[in-house]
Design brief:
By secondary structure, this protein is α/β, with parallel strands linked by helices. The chain has 2 domains: 160 residues, Uracil-DNA glycosylase-like domain (Uracil-DNA Glycosylase, subunit E), CATH 3.40.470.10; 225 residues, 2-Layer Sandwich (Nucleotidyltransferase, domain 5). Helix content is 45%, strand content 13%. It contains 16 helices and 11 strands. The strands form 2 sheets. It has a 6-stranded mixed beta sheet, sandwiched between helices. Strands 2-1-3-5-4 form a 5-stranded mixed beta sheet, sandwiched between helices. Helix 9 packs parallel to helix 10, helix 12 crosses helix 14 and helix 13 packs across helix 14. 38% of the residues are buried.
């Protein structure tokens, strides 16, 4: 049996990494997280400027359990919990990183731990009634990452959350929002409001998010066929930095309003989530001439992909909950998108207006909050060049996608024949 590898006097950042139980290698060396898992853990900590020696390393259970057990028995976790908490307290730990389900069960009550590591790891640092004055950052075990490579970015992100608040953006807070529609505004009022937004934000960021009939994060192509429902606009000027204007489609029936909105798109730095889609729909819907239209100045989806190229982590709802600690605001629209019986095709027009407008406002505000954080991370890691390249490509593809791309079948066939002949010649000479 053994406890943390770090003496309390040596702990500088008060982080504790808690694993499951010692395996054979750990028993032999008398310390946790050795072998491949430990190497991966050490490499990630190194990237954050944290030495393994600065971190308290412990296990949920201090004893090796027989290989015939498929997992650590709950009774062992219960019995070892007082010992673990005592060790963490004596070491002056302020942030605990339980890695894997067994470790999570050792630091959370059953009612919380039953949610599982995949659910619990998402979001900002948490608190547990079992650990006074300690923040908890659940994470996948490095061994799970070695088996399933797609989990590695989550582990990297979670260790960053534990290391410093510098690796987290400002926490979530709700925006205020105002619906601009024919029910609440005259055309002249909407026109004046748009001009005011533009004048206050010329050359500065304005965050835009559209809601159409389709689910835009999984839709592609045919942007000219989408039914516009509403457009959220989040300025960045001091007066409106926490406010969102939700313009309904009917207010744009007036050409004066449409031109004022187009002026805003042209004179401000427009930033979106999955902006290639939004800009493509807006170009078609507002009636821009061919190969003309607003340019995307920022995209949180591309920023996220630049930082972490793995799939499945770039949706706005996921990123909001992961980094900002937002509620699952998409949950509110889920009962409506497939119609009253829940069996129809996805159509956001089914969503009651007040719920849709709130959802749109949240989309804009999450994008606004994430943009600043992602920009800092990209600068910190020196990866601005690939992000800017993808942004340029996104703007180019906005013009290409509605028309499609030509493909010279005959030329492709001739190239195929040429390269096959060269390959055959090379094989024969070898």
């Amino acid at each position: 049996m053994f406890g943390p590898t770090t003496d309390p006097g040596q702990v500088t950042n008060r982080i504790a990494i808690v694993g499951e139980a010692p395996a054979r290698q750990e028993i032999a060396k008398g310390e946790p997280f050795v072998g491949a898992s430990g190497q991966l853990l050490g490499a990630i900590l190194d990237q954050y400027g944290v030495s393994r020696d600065e971190v308290v390393l412990a296990n949920a259970c201090a004893c090796h359990y027989p290989e015939s057990f498929k997992k650590l028995p709950p009774e062992a976790i219960e019995c070892c919990r007082p010992r673990l908490i005592s060790e963490l307290t004596e070491a002056g730990v302020t942030t605990v990183v339980p890695m894997g389900n067994s470790a999570v069960q050792s630091v959370f009550p059953k009612s919380v731990a039953r949610a599982g590591i995949t659910s619990l790891r998402a979001g900002r640092p948490k608190q547990s009634e079992l650990l006074s004055d300690m923040l908890v950052v659940p994470a996948f075990h490095p061994a799970a990452c070695l088996r399933s490579q797609e989990k590695t970015p989550y582990l990297i992100a979670d260790l960053g959350k534990a290391v410093s608040a510098d690796y987290l953006p400002q926490g979530w807070y709700e925006p205020s929002w105002q619906v601009v529609s024919l029910q609440s505004h005259r055309y002249e009022q909407a026109y004046q409001l748009l001009n005011e937004i533009t004048n206050l934000n010329v050359g500065e960021s304005v965050y835009v998010d559209i809601e159409v009939g389709a689910e835009k994060d999984v839709s592609y192509g045919n942007v000219h066929m989408q039914k516009m429902l509403c457009i959220g606009v989040g300025p960045s000027d001091v007066r409106n930095a926490d406010h969102v204007y939700v313009f309904t489609a009917d207010i744009f029936e007036n050409s004066m309003v449409r031109h004022a909105f187009m002026r805003m798109l042209d004179e401000c730095r427009i930033k979106c989530q999955n902006g290639k889609y939004d800009i493509g729909v807006l170009r078609s819907w507002l009636g821009y001439e061919d190969f003309r239209g607003p340019e995307l100045a920022g995209d949180t989806m591309l920023q996220s992909y630049t930082i972490n190229e793995y799939g499945g982590v770039h949706g706005l709802e996921y990123m909001g909950m992961e980094w900002l600690g937002t509620p699952d605001w998409k949950h509110e629209i889920a009962p409506y998108v497939k119609g009253p019986d829940g069996k129809g095709p996805v159509d956001y027009a089914n969503i009651p207006a007040d719920i849709l407008h709130k959802y749109n406002a949240f989309d804009v505000h999450v994008t606004r909050l994430l943009d600043g954080f992602f920009t800092e991370q990209i600068d910190k890691f020196g990866i601005g060049a690939p992000y800017r390249f993808m942004l340029r490509a996104s703007n180019m593809l906005t013009f290409v996608e509605p028309r499609g791309m030509g493909f010279d079948v005959a030329y492709s066939a001739s190239l195929s024949e040429k390269y096959q002949a060269e390959e055959a010649e090379g094989t024969a000479s070898a």
